[in-house]
Specification:
Layout: H1 4-13, H2 15-23, H3 25-28, H4 36-48, H5 54-57
């Protein structure tokens, strides 16, 4: 099952995915295996409009 790396890759390369993730997050993330922390950090990233919390997303690699 795909995880956070695939979600981040799609956010960078597929503008429509960010739109779907913002409007219907549960549908956009169906099929991805994400922890609660990963979902929370994605929500912060989306609310910030991208970029403002990139350092927090780096926490996912720890």
């Amino acid at each position: 099952m795909a995880g956070i790396d695939e979600v981040l890759e799609r956010l960078v390369h597929e503008p429509g995915f960010r739109t779907r993730l913002t409007s219907r997050p549960w549908a956009a993330l169906a099929g991805y295996e994400l922890s609660d922390k990963e979902r929370e950090l994605l929500a912060v990233e989306l609310l910030a409009g991208g970029g403002a919390h990139r350092g927090r997303l780096a926490e996912l690699d720890r």
